[in-house]
Amino acid sequence: MRKLIIFLLLTTGFCIHVSAQSEWIVPQERKGRLSSFEFSDESRAKGLDHYNKNCASCHGQPGAANYQNLVPPPGDPASADFLMNLDGEMFYKVMEGRDPMPSFKSVLTQDEIWEIISYIRSYDPNYVHAFLPTAEKSAYGGIVSITLTHLKEAGKIEAKVTGVKNGIIENIAGAEVVLRVKRTFGSLLAGEPMETNQNGIVVFNEPSDLPGNKDGLLELTAQLTNQDAYGITRADTALAVGKPFEAVSLTVERAMWNTVRKAPIWLLITFSLAVFLAWATIFYILHQLKKITDIGKNVVEEWD
Ligand code: HEC
């Protein structure tokens, strides 16, 4: 009986394992997606930076095949297999992730993911770049923008979404907006995504519990999540809503790991005492030896 159970466990484990390695299928309608801007030296440089911070830990340096030994293997971005992905496929995979690769949907903005793809494509000699500017791409067919307002008294941040189509300005209702806060690595969602009301407005709570810079300044980005409908639309702002935070150097105060000048007092005292005791012991022993030789001399004199 026990053997049977072990056998069953092993085979189910094996099946799960095999299914995890199956081909990573991207929905048909997502494959053809293009970036909204033209790849450039600037986008590649930014992409390299994002890549090093977010991807290199698993995928290694492109071309060096030094990716992590994971199951399934992450693969080298400069390899033919990897580059076989269409731009839209890469974008989808980075957005969604698949265990053990995390989803980057709430870590990177869509522009940042495209910048990474522009960097990865610099290893692709056969790549022909195509892109679709925002206004042409969105189903909306006009230009959408977000305006951020800080409602200081209420402790809220208001995002208003407006569109301009055929020369007419209108409020956009029912559009999902996310608010992100920039952190050292990537960004953090400030609350749940929310839909605009009849006046094209969503109101977020201030992310007041986050440490900002020394003046409490936080860099915020509001973005529409439905890129197909509205194109890439975002607004950036910096508001002093975070907790003022000044990184203190670890060596400013007296501490174990500090230099002699700023070592903890108790450590200095114990150390000095230990050194003093060691020398005292040595002198005491020398003194006793001297005594022995002196006594020895006296004995010899008495015999004489
Ligand atoms: C925790 C490790 C890890 C991190 C971090 C990571 N990946 Fe991955 N990535 C993987 C693994 C593992 C796979 C293979 C997943 C699979 O096939 O199910 C993969 C697959 C991919 C694929 C598909 C490759 C193919 O041949 O189809 C792309 C594209 C990709 N990663 C891009 C990125 C980018 C861009 C980043 C950074 C924003 C990133 N990855 C960060 C582990 C990681």
Textual characterization of the structure:
The protein has ten helices and nine strands. The protein is an alpha+beta fold. It folds into three domains: 2-123, Orthogonal Bundle (Cytochrome Bc1 Complex, Chain D, domain 2), CATH 1.10.760; 139-239, Immunoglobulin-like (Sandwich); 260-303. The strands form two sheets. Strands 4, 5, 6, 8 and 9 form a five-stranded antiparallel beta sheet that branches. Strands 1, 2, 3 and 7 form a four-stranded antiparallel beta sheet that branches. It is elongated. The chain starts with a helix and ends with a helix. The model is unreliable at 13-20 (pLDDT under 50). The structure holds heme C.
Determine and state the CATH class of the largest domain.
Answer: Mainly Alpha
Q: What's the N-to-C terminus distance?
A: 100 Å
What are the bound molecules? heme C
For the sheet with most strands, the description reads: 5 strands, antiparallel
Beta-strand proportion: 15-25%
Specify the structural class: alpha+beta
Number of domains: 3
Question: Which bin fits the share of residues in helices?
Answer: 25-40%
C-alpha-based Rg, rounded: 33 Å
The CATH superfamily name of the largest domain is Cytochrome c-like domain
CATH topology annotation of the largest domain = Cytochrome Bc1 Complex, Chain D, domain 2
Order of helices and strands: HHHHHHHHEEEEEEEEHEH
- Uncertain runs are 13-20
Shape: elongated
